Amino acid sequence: MPKITTYDFIDSNTRKTALLMVLFPISLAALIYIALLILGAAHSADTTANAAKLSPVMFANEIAIYAIPVISAAAILWVIISYFFGQNFILSAAGAVELTKNNSPEVIRIVENIALTSGLPMPKVYAINDEGLNAFATGRDPKHSYIALTKGIINKLDKPELEGVIAHEMAHIGNRDIKLMLITVVCISFATIAAEILLRVALSKGRSSSKNKGQAQLLFLALALVFYIYGYFVAPLIKLALSRTREYQADATAALITRNPQGLASALRKISENSTVEKLKDKETVAAMCIETPLSKEKQNSLFSKISGLYSTHPPIEKRIKALMEMDGQRT
User: Fold this and answer.
1) CA distance 149 to 133
2) Domain Peptidase M48 spans what residues (predicted)?
């Protein structure tokens, strides 16, 4: 089997990110057009309609010529804005606050040493006020990167363990995993937010009894359904771009940076006992960015989760620990 290098991961993630940014508006437009065709077929079959009947294709074309450019433009604008500022939304959603040399000198010193060893720029460091043990990295490139650590992981891990976790997150930055994960989160969140807005507009239209507003309500409901379908059924396919091997690769890189696989292995054992983060426990889009899923046990064990595999973004932590121990010449 050919050896996969860090440069291979960087090239692969860069290609996947570009492909995702191109396919996102195209796939949305295709799904919207299919929904309009179905709506057009229903309209044609409506024997109570007095207006002149249009074929499903003509009906779809008449609406798509306005709807698709507007929605596609909004999607592209959302991706561009989020590419540059998406990390701010994510850190804000987690309730993270920036750490400095004044309020957390020991953590900053560890991050500085790991950045120097790995040959990467110093990222900004944030703390999440939660006793759960978790961490994630975000940003668009190494020069614009951010590491977030829960207070639980800062307070409950010893120094070698914390070094392993920070080195793991630095590996995600170096491999450009952060850019791919940021765009993935952005695409999925656009669909869910658009669905919520369209549903609210449809419900407000429903308060009127006029026929035209009733048709508009049906149109907005159909578009809301499209975005819900995109968020809940297409999103898992998008997440396939997030290879689960990225975690093994980040673990291995962290072990090389710290020259101490046992440090990260010990950290993962403690993290596995309590990785839930209150502000992230229902944010499955951000969960893929964390060192271990922060979702609640109920969400992970739900029937929907088991059927869709939506939340299966991390390999089993026992396998990651085993791989690290084998790197150190030990068996678990």
Assistant:
1) 8
2) 104-327
Q: Is 247 annotated as a binding residue?
A: yes
Mean predicted lDDT score pLDDT of the chain: 82
Q: CA 329 → CA 165, 235, 253, 262, 332, distances in Å?
A: 20, 39, 16, 10, 10
Q: Which amino acid is at 121?
A: P
Question: Residue 251, SS3?
Answer: helix
**Phi-psi sector, 259: left (phi>0), alpha (psi -120 to 50), beta:** left
8-62 pLDDT, tens digit per residue, is 767 777 787 787 777 777 887 888 888 888 888 877 776 555 555 678 888 888 8
Q: Which long-range contacts (CB under 8 A, 24 or more apart) does 310-315 make?
A: 310/232, 310/235, 310/236, 310/239, 310/284, 311/284, 311/287, 312/244, 313/239, 313/242, 313/244, 313/287, 313/288, 314/244, 314/247, 314/288, 315/244, 315/245, 315/247, 315/248
CA distance 139 to 173: 8
Q: Which of 17, 326, 25 is nearest to 190 (CA)?
A: 25
Instruction: Name the nearest CA neighbour of 292 among 250, 329, 322.
Output: 250
- Tokens 């960015």 -> residue: 289
Joined together, the tokens standing for residue 129 give 């006020």
Q: At what angle do helices 245-258 and 159-174 cross, to 10 degrees?
A: 120
Residue-wise pLDDT tens digits, 257-308: 999 999 999 999 999 999 999 888 877 777 878 998 888 777 666 655 555 5
- Residue where the block lists tokens 């290609």: 15
Confidence band for 203, pLDDT divided at 50, 70 and 90: confident
The distance of Cα 199 from the centroid of its chain, to the nearest Å, equals 23
- Specify the pTM: 0.79
Q: Residue 1: which pLDDT band, with cuts at 50, 70 and 90?
A: very low
Q: How would you label 49-75 residue by residue, b for 16+ Cβ within 10 Å and e otherwise? A: eeeeeeebeebbeebbeebbeebbeeb
